Amino acid sequence: MAWRGAVLAIAAALGLLLARPPAPLVALQERVFAPLPRPPDTGGIVVLDIGARDETGALWTRAATARLVARLAEAKPRVIGLDMLIAGECDGAPAGDLAAALRGQPAVLGLLLSDTPGPPLPPARLGQTGPLPLWQAAGAETPCPQFSAQDWAVMALMGDADATVRHLPVAVAVGHQTLPGLAVAIAARAEGLLPLIGPTGLRLGATTFPLEAGSLRFAASRPESWARRTLPAAAVLAGQARPPADAVLLIGSSLPERGGLRPSATSPVMPSVQILADAVAGLRSGQLPHRPGWAPALEGGFVALTGLLTLLGLLRLRPARAAAMAATLAALWAGAAVLFGRGGLLLDPVLPVVALALILLAALLGRAAALARAERVLRDRMGQVLPPALVSRLAAQPRLMRLEGETREITALFTDIEGFSTATSAMGAVEMVARLDAYFALTCAIVLRHGGMIDKLVGDSLHALFNAPLDQPGHEAAALACAAEIVTATEAFARENNGFGKTRIGVECGPAVLGDVGFGTRIDYTAHGPAVNLAARLQEANKALGTRICIGPTLGAREPGLVALGEIELRSFGRLPLYTLRA
């Protein structure tokens, strides 16, 4: 059949789409991946956060950095990593003091990349085999000569297409020289290893990290975890805090004016030194997330295969069982993808499931259309031996007895709470819902007691019908008595609830069309007609008239003893004689 071919085509198209995802789809997947990998344990890593001022209250300077490095050296750190530029201002005491403080320390300093070639850079501690797809740069900021004996690495953080930083460079080819990324250099120095970059990825000791286009993906931690590994640099200088011994100490700043904030998967403003801490922790623990190049093909293949299985299931099984089978396959995929994602292997747990749901929907619709065509053929055949009306009723409504449309005289009653927006602006959500529950419990009980039907509850409004769905003799008087009791009851309710609950009511009678309206299981028995619309307008007219109950002209002419309000202009209805109840 044609629908089967259409379902197969949809399955193939969705599978191909996931196997070769366009940029917008990749961006959606990255949002899904963000919470999957577990951030590595950052035990043994301490971030020294440089603020605007040092321990004396003066603005932070390079001299303060020198004092900080000297203080950190007392803790015998495993490595000191500087996520800050040490270039320019090479002459003078501050530069000399910092160079002296760093001399003999296991320190790794950061370089910034440049668009213009520069002089040769210090040699890098990095092994490389074969041509690799590394990040390229024309040059880098040249360090001061006093610092040339230190280890140097690249501080570059380049965002993805949406500017979010999810990857760090394993190394950067600067001119004819290759420099390691800062995280790689710090992790290697901390473990006493020489990082080796080869065709299989980055190797640190016995662990090999696969690369994604020459970069490493890191698992970003959340802001609440940053404080646990961070010490204020000024507090360390003042002796109020002390880093542990044999730790990896990372110096950087979270101040926006220092330009170190980047959007990450967990925060739109993540300090670069915190990104560095996550990457170093992942490298040291061997736990960096990775999305292999074959992952899209696997996801697309899953969609195509399960789409075919879903189609075969619908051809052999009942729709409910076929849908359950597809749901089971989707749940197994999502569960496995989440499990692998928590371990660092990133497979999409969402989009393949959505694609399978679309295939199932298309298959169900196709089968429903085919069954509808078969039903028409069967109806024509049965119409030859059974009355057509009976055939239509059995075929269309075998179990559900649905009320058909009818025109009947009804009285419509609409309520509204006076000053609802103002009264609820000072309430919390819980209090507002609680008071509305109590209010509707009161007013709905009154309507039911007078024989009315609750048509709808819309916001703070109640819509009620009298003489529907069954005949109700005296429905006009019943509606007016109901309105009077609601006003009396809600006045008392308002006195107990700080003025909340005073009610305005509109009432009118007339012919209306009633019946079930809806689709599938969403069916609503309701009324349509001028009397219903006018009752809503009358409820609104109370504001201008200063009344609690406003009654329309048809009901006003039928019921004696009402108070005439005169002819009033109503939007969409013109000038009408209106009434209210006698006080």
UniProtKB/TrEMBL annotation:
Pfam families per record: CHASE2, Guanylate_cyc
GO molecular function, one term: adenylate cyclase activity
Ranges of residues in domain Guanylate cyclase: 411-539
SUPFAM superfamilies, alphabetized: Nucleotide cyclase
Sequence intervals crossing the membrane: 294-315, 322-341, 353-372
InterPro entries per the UniProt record, alphabetical: A/G_cyclase, Adenylyl/Guanylyl_Cyclase_3/4, CHASE2, Nucleotide_cyclase
Entry keywords, A to Z: Membrane, Transmembrane, Transmembrane helix
A GO biological process held by the record: cAMP biosynthetic process
PANTHER family recorded: ADENYLATE CYCLASE, TERMINAL-DIFFERENTIATION SPECIFIC-RELATED (PTHR43081), TWO-COMPONENT RESPONSE REGULATOR (PTHR43081:SF20)
Protein name in UniProt: Adenylate/guanylate cyclase domain-containing protein
